Recover the amino acids of this structure.
């Protein structure tokens, strides 16, 4: 089972913290939709033996496309690929694009899951992040979307400078009041070349505080688990049967095809990524050339990637899989590296599965990089 990810590289405005690839000019939107459809056709041979279980519209802001454009791209996927029965089809959307009329339109389309970028229910946070929606729109779109969609995820950001634990709890409680079955939540990170980085450097906004982000994370886990959410991946919480199939496939190392500018693909052996430039992408596709680079992954690359993704999830890292897939040298290396984290109560082994303890969860990415196998090939 595999997935298709479609990157829509347009946004109405740039959020201060975002370093994803997008353009705020919609001039080439129609041209881009046709190019994405053409890339889907050009690459069908790569996945001719695969059954597509998920289609995911990410970005950018995919909800800037019209429902007709979205339907057209979905029909192109169905035309060129083998699709599982009842695939999960997700659209990332911003509240300001989800009017009542739009929600009803989308409910009639093949889209069966919405991922809504709320980020915060507080006006001052939304202004600081330069989001295109306000607090009223955030609540209104959830009220209406839940009437038409059962499978909804929303995004929340924690670790915002100056956000008290109380305010963060209110954010979570507000999200829960809509009966949403899936929540993705991320710490506010400062990426180079973003407006947020500049605002911090010029002293206009305080720097995010790691200690406060760690407290917010602990509050999030505690409240959501008490409300029957399963913490199945570091940043993702879902009720039973509502895990994101698209994202789970990525963490479980399944194959996926990334279509559109800057999209990444993985086929189990190699990784490829499209150029992060709309004009070059369009020109390339029009000339029947794929605008991508390919990297064949070494055994060590694949091992490191499995450590990174496995530790972030409820499924952990299987020691048996390490031995069968990568060899005993890697297993011995891992046993040696994990010891200090086990002693510090940050990792534990249960039934030959390596997992982070509650104390180790927030530190997972740092721990994973300490377990990487380096320069040994």
């Amino acid at each position: 089972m595999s997935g298709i990810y479609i990157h829509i590289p347009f946004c109405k405005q740039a959020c201060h913290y975002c370093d994803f690839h997008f353009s705020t000019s919609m001039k080439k939107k129609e041209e881009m939709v046709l190019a994405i459809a053409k890339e889907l056709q050009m690459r069908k041979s790569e996945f001719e033996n695969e059954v597509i279980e998920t289609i995911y519209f990410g970005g950018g802001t995919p909800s800037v496309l019209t429902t007709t454009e979205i339907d057209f791209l979905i029909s192109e996927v169905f035309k060129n690929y083998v699709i599982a029965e009842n695939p999960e089809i997700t659209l990332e959307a911003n509240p300001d694009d989800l009017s009542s009329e739009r929600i009803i339109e989308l409910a009639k389309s093949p889209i069966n899951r919405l991922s809504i970028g709320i980020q915060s229910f507080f006006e001052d946070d939304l202004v600081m992040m330069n989001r295109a929606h306000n607090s009223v729109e955030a609540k209104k779109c959830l009220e209406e979307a839940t009437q038409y969609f059962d499978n909804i995820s929303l995004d929340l950001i924690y670790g915002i400078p100056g956000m008290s634990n109380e305010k963060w709890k209110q954010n979570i409680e507000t999200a829960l009041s809509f009966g949403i079955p899936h929540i993705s939540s991320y710490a506010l990170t400062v990426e180079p070349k973003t407006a947020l980085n500049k605002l911090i450097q010029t002293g206009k906004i305080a720097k995010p505080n790691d200690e406060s982000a760690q407290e917010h994370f602990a509050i999030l886990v505690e409240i959501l688990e008490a409300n029957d959410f399963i913490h199945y991946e570091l940043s993702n919480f879902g009720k039973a049967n509502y895990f994101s199939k698209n994202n789970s496939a990525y963490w479980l190392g399944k194959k996926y095809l990334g279509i559109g500018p800057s999209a990444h693909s993985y086929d189990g052996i190699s990784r490829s990524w499209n150029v992060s430039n709309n004009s070059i992408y369009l020109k390339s596709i029009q000339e029947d050339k794929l605008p991508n680079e390919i990297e064949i992954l070494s055994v060590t690359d694949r091992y490191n990637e499995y450590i990174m993704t496995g530790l972030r999830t409820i499924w952990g890292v299987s020691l048996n899989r390490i031995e069968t897939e990568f060899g005993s040298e890697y297993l011995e290396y891992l046993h040696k590296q994990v010891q200090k984290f086990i002693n510090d109560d940050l990792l534990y082994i249960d039934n030959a599965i390596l997992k982070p303890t509650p104390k180790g969860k927030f530190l997972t990415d740092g721990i994973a990089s300490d377990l990487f196998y380096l320069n040994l090939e």
Observations:
- The chain has a mean pLDDT of 95.
- The chain has 15 helices and 15 strands.
